[in-house]
Specification:
Elements lengths: L1 H10 L19 H11 L3 E4 L8 H4 L1 H22 L2 E7 L22 H13 L5 E6 L2 E2 L12 H9 L4 E5 L7 E2 H13 L5 E4 L8 H12 L4 E5 L27 H9 L5
Parallel strand pairs: 1-2, 2-3, 3-7, 4-6, 5-8
């Protein structure tokens, strides 16, 4: 979902040649393959959009999650550092425990509470093996569905699909965080690289925060669906992995992006009233 937007946005610059690799082109969990492929390509910039993002699945497959979220990042960081090129890596709000109702800034200390979160937090540390790195945290990514058969649907598309089949739905009214529109994140990443923002960790979500319930309500309002949405506590849907209750990613290093409501309206192709 993010990778295709990164390719589109960066390719718009006629001075840059952008090459997009999927898993059939490069197995980033194999150190030698990473070294050989990147060395031959001679890149000036490497952007890693790959992740094991099945939060609950990671509880049953910790080794697989760690391989892609941590080990692969270490391979990329090591090779890009050897080549002297910049590495961009994406992380998640789930690295925080969610106990701070005010949300989290870039310098707050992670305290991951699930296998997925721990592997992503370790991936952030691994990325720092390359001094020329950007670690960009996001949350609740939505946008045009990815072409890959392994891609996960966004919450927005899941809700629209459910609304087409049923008139009522229960949605978790908890877990405050910030939706992130993939095209906005891609453009923000481009700007950081183009303007040579200082290396380090950044938060680049859309502005504002909501629960899953309020997110769903806004989706249905914008598309004109009369779906009856009932907010329920998180424990209504027992899930293997712990989720942070409050994980809004606040930005202190760069100007905030537009509101998540405006971004959602654009994605859905409707005008905000």
């Amino acid at each position: 979902m993010l990778g295709q937007e990164i390719v589109r946005v960066f390719s718009a610059n006629p001075l840059w040649q952008v090459v997009g690799w999927d898993f059939e082109n490069l197995d980033i969990t194999d150190a030698k393959s990473v070294e050989n492929k990147l060395t031959a390509a001679e890149p000036q910039l490497v952007i890693n959009c790959a992740a094991y993002n099945n939060v609950d699945g990671a509880e049953a497959e910790p080794e697989k999650a760690a391989l892609l979220n941590t080990t692969a990042v270490a391979h990329l960081a090591h090779t890009t550092a050897q080549l002297g090129v910049t590495l961009v890596h994406f992380s998640t709000d789930y690295v925080f425990d969610g106990t701070n109702r005010d949300g989290y800034i870039e310098t707050d200390t992670p305290n991951p509470q699930s296998v997925y979160a721990r592997t992503k937090a370790a991936g952030e540390v691994a990325a720092q093996d390359n001094p020329k790195h950007y670690v960009i945290r996001l949350s609740r990514l939505f946008g045009k569905p990815a072409a890959s058969t392994n891609a996960k649907k966004s919450f927005v598309d899941v809700m629209i699909g459910i609304a087409a089949k049923q008139s009522t739905i229960n949605v978790v009214d908890g877990e405050y965080s910030s939706p992130t529109y993939a095209p906005d994140l891609a453009r923000a990443t481009y700007d950081m690289v183009k303007l040579q923002s200082p290396y380090g960790t950044y938060h680049r979500t859309n502005d504002g925060a909501c629960t899953w319930y309020t997110f769903a309500k806004e989706i249905f309002r914008l598309v004109g669906k009369n779906t009856a949405v009932t907010g329920v506590p998180p424990e209504t849907f027992p899930r293997p992995a712990a989720r942070p209750a409050y994980s809004q990613l606040r930005t202190t290093k760069l100007p905030p992006l537009r509101s998540w409501q405006d971004a959602l309206a654009e994605y859905l192709g409707v005008a905000q009233p």
